[in-house]
Design goal:
Elements: E1 2-8, E2 14-20, E3 32-33, H1 44-60, H2 62-65, H3 68-83, E4 90-93, H4 96-105, E5 112-116, H5 121-128, E6 133-137, H6 143-151, E7 158-162, H7 174-183, E8 188-192, E9 211-215, E10 227-231, H8 272-288, H9 290-310, H10 316-319, E11 327-331, H11 334-342, E12 345-346, E13 348-350, E14 353-357, H12 364-374
Parallel strand pairs: 3-12, 5-6, 5-7, 7-8, 8-9
Antiparallel strand pairs: 1-2, 4-10, 9-10, 11-14, 13-14
């Protein structure tokens, strides 16, 4: 697969060149990797950077690690630029799950929360195990209408949902969330971006989302142990955090009583390897150009949806929606799953079917090959 990479010459003129990116992902030489929804791939550039990082640690010891504070500021700057969020409104967290639990521990008052049935367990469970009143709606082709109808009743304080569903890839309409927030300004919208971030350009500040929490080991290709929280200023009065540590005060005892909102979510040490990997991958994706990545994903999504639908393998709620991600859950049992495995297709059993997910390093030819395996 050829894809555009954006580069600039010393005169600042934009040069668009073609480069084959697949060779940077050695796993792709061994199989059809249709499992980014589970784990994004490691690529050679990042591996080399990580090796250099640990070599610096090996020979530099504490001198190297003491520079991590400045490193994290750089990471936040990169995250802020990539997702259009103010640096002071970014918290770096080891994972979505830990980040969300810390956020919810600070959410004040009795809240009525609207969740999606079948949404990611690490999103729903933390609400269900706290003193919130929880209501649910089913995920179907009228998802946005059903959310609106429920919020319109005036009984919902918090809407929490994944932007892309982990099992079947159903994608919420971001324009809908923006309109919803505009109409119901007191509604707190909290989103899981783990299956979304890295699939398209996203302007957090211009979105309808108040708080976005995400892990970055999937579509952002950053490896494990890193994630972040994005917060809008308007959401802060809803929270009163108790979480705190020396890291919250930037290792300064005199700052104990002067801790900013997001630093409550960073009570301890942050790993320069993991968060440096996040920064490296954001720069890697930006260099490719999110517009090119999105174009490739839209092409793959359209082809896969047409193909799987023609074979009768998709749920009606997926078929009947206008937009979709590159995550698909096809009808199939373990026997079919094992057939795909024998054909060197890496995928996953999820829900009542088989989940296939495609990133920009996948090709239309790979989808054709999968289709051939699925035909009776």
């Amino acid at each position: 697969m050829a894809i555009f990479i954006n580069k600039y010459n010393p005169n600042g003129l934009k040069i668009v060149v073609m480069q084959n990116l697949r060779k940077k992902f050695p796993v792709l030489n061994q199989c059809i990797y249709a499992n980014t929804a589970a784990t994004g791939l490691l690529y050679e550039d990042l591996m080399e950077w990580r090796q250099e990082h640990d070599l610096d640690y090996l020979i530099g010891g504490s001198d190297m690690k003491m520079k991590s504070f400045d490193v994290m500021l750089g990471v936040k700057e990169t995250v802020g630029k990539f997702f259009h969020c103010k640096q002071e409104n970014i918290a770096l967290v080891p994972s979505f799950t830990l980040g969300l639990n810390m956020v919810l521990d600070g959410l004040q008052g009795e809240k009525n929360v609207l969740l999606l049935r079948e949404d990611y367990p690490s999103l729903n469970w933390p609400f269900e195990t706290r003193d919130f009143k929880v209501e649910y709606i089913d995920i179907n082709e009228r998802l946005e209408d059903r959310i609106y109808e429920k919020v319109k009743t005036g009984t919902i304080d918090v809407l929490a949902l994944s932007l892309i569903q982990w099992v079947n890839g159903i994608k919420i309409d971001l324009n809908f969330l923006k309109k919803l927030k505009k109409e119901f300004q007191d509604l707190l919208i909290l989103a899981d971006g783990t299956q979304f971030c890295g699939t398209q350009e996203f302007d957090f500040q211009d979105s309808g989302i108040d708080i976005l929490v995400t892990s970055t080991y999937k579509w952002l290709l950053s490896g494990y142990g890193n994630g972040f929280v994005l917060v809008k200023d308007e959401a802060k009065p809803h929270f009163n955090f108790k979480s705190i540590g020396y890291g919250s005060a930037d290792w300064d005892v005199d700052k104990k009583t002067d801790i900013s909102f997001c630093k409550h979510l960073e009570p301890g040490h942050l790993d320069s390897l993991n968060f440096g990997s996040l920064q490296f991958s954001l720069n890697f994706l930006a260099n490719i150009g999110m517009e090119h990545i999105t174009a490739q994903l839209e092409k793959l999504s359209a082809k896969a949806k047409i193909g799987f639908r023609s074979l009768g393998l998709l749920e009606e709620r997926v078929v009947n929606r206008n937009q979709h991600s590159t995550i698909f859950n096809i009808k199939g049992d373990r026997e079919l799953f094992e057939k795909l495995e024998q054909g060197n297709v890496i995928c996953a059993l999820r829900g009542n079917g088989i989940r296939l997910s495609f990133h920009f390093y996948n090709t239309e030819n790979e989808i054709d090959a999968i289709m051939d395996m699925l035909k009776p």
